[in-house]
Amino acid sequence: MKPLTELKDELNKCVRCGTCRSICPTFRVIGRESASARGKLALIDAYLKGEIASSETYLKHIKECTLCGACRDGCPNGVDTIGIITAARAEAVQRQGMPYAASFILKTLLDPGRIMPVALKFASRIQGLLLKDSTVEVGLLSRFSLPLVGGGRLVPPLARQFFLDMPDIKALFEGARSKPAVSSATKPVRVAFYAGCGVNYLMPEVGVKSIEILRRAGAEPVVPSSQICCGMPAFSMGDLPTAKSMAIKNLEAFEACECDYITTSCATCGHALKNLFGDLLGFDPELDARVKAMAAKVRDITELLVNVLGYEGKSPPAPPVHAPWRGYPERGESPPPLSKGEESGGVKKTVTYHDPCHLNRAQGIRREPRRLIESAPGVVFKEMKFPCGCCGLGGGLSTTNYDLSISITKRKVDSIKASGADIVATACPGCMVQLRDGLHKHGVDVKVAHVVDLL
Ligand code: SF4
Ligand code: SF4
User: Fold this and answer.
1) Where in the chain is CATH 3.40.50?
2) Among 239, 292, 356, 453, which residue's CB has the most CB atoms within a 10 Å radius?
């Protein structure tokens, strides 16, 4: 990844056409030029030319971004807006350092074996004091404003037992250390599972279900024990040294495991394993080759199930009367609506799907999760309007500017409500947390599930 001072040519590619304004979730809410990619690039350009200082206002504007990637996808000149904005954040952190709370959390995630057990045991003890039970099924409400949390927010409770501490999961550590069975025609596909922080600390049930589905699909799941946070939170906040250290530790953990594929149930982690590690470590030819070899094995769990393992669920796939991935609504138009579950046979649940930015834009995966939902028993799939609109969580925005982050979620909540769905499924624990909070805040009674929960 290039430092900001080497991105002047990239900045000069911007012709100020403004296409990025119409697709930017932060601009849509704030309506101010500096909230759009074009405005941010103009500010960064002025900063590099010495026309403005690195003031609080400058920093506020470069943080007003979910790093959703819509501007980069939509830019007719192919400007790497995300590369420029993240480089500007990294330059600011290098000069000024990180806020203490964020720095402590990132260091804890970097060295989970040493600090994490104590920190999280303490956090799980005091969460009852700081947070109270909500009326909704999953989540606690913060009693008052907390650093990085904010008051009145629906917060996912820490799991009673973390995914990587579960005896059934620890039993899979050994598989990751051992050699695979001698090759034969019937040898199962060996899949190393990457949990990520969302699954490990907040939603271990998603990880357990993922392992179960991998087995049901005929694979042999293994779990490398020394995996840690993927580094995306550190990268988004501009702490590149921490993100690089995390990438190297994970690279070593998965290199030590002889597997055919690496999979994850988290869109953000999958994007990190496939793309971010290369951006962070690609400066070194030796590391670059190792990262590329690892990234070639990485598949999102929906991608692996559909494209590699041919998983079709218990029930036969839905007849091809509706194929939402054909003519996919990139710019917001909706495909023809499906009938509601009730109309198509009694007790079926209607499920809509939210595209995580890190799966849809960063990995190009849209068809596979929909295919799995359509093949799930007791389910009718219904596309929502703006399925690929950002949920508002990313880029660290939910911690640096919660009000803006949750305002972005409102549009998504309206789309989910208008779809008439009973359940909104997605493929990212982070999006699940944000959607639950947004639906709760706006009084919309729709359950949030991971795609694997439906299978
Ligand atoms: S769409 Fe691209 S070229 Fe146009 S203003 Fe935005 S970043 Fe610049
Ligand atoms: S990455 Fe998303 S939120 Fe950030 S400027 Fe681009 S479109 Fe806007």
Assistant:
1) 312-454
2) 356
Per-residue pLDDT reduced to its tens digit, 287-338: 999 999 999 999 999 999 999 999 976 544 444 333 333 333 333 334 434 4
Right CATH number for 4-96 from 1.10.1060.10, 1.10.10.10, 3.40.190.10, 1.20.120.450? Answer: 1.10.1060.10
Residue ranges of E strands in 290-387: 298-300, 349-353, 379-381
Contact between 161 and 124 (Cβ < 8 Å)? no
For residues 341 and 103, what is the distance between their CA atoms, to the nearest angstrom?
47
Give mean pLDDT, residues 197-212.
96
> pTM, whole model, 2 decimals?
0.87
Across all residues in the chain, what is the average pLDDT?
Answer: 87
CATH code for the domain defined by 163-307: 1.20.1050
In this structure, of 304-313, 316-325, 417-426, 429-438, the range with the lowest mean pLDDT score is 316-325
For residue 195 the two structure tokens come to 């949990």
Fold for domain 312-454? Rossmann fold (3.40.50)
In DSSP notation, 128-167 reads HHHEEE-SSSS-EEESS--TTT-TT-EEPPPPSS-GGGSH
| Distance (Å) from CA 390 to ligand 2 centroid | 9
Testing ligand 2's pocket by substitution, the residue of 23, 38, 75, 81 carrying the most ligand atoms inside 8 A of its CB is 81
Which bound ligand lies closest to the C-alpha atom of 82?
2
CA atoms within 13 A on the CB side of 54: 11
For residues 227, 232, 233 and 237, what is the CA-based torsion angle, rounded to 10 degrees? 140
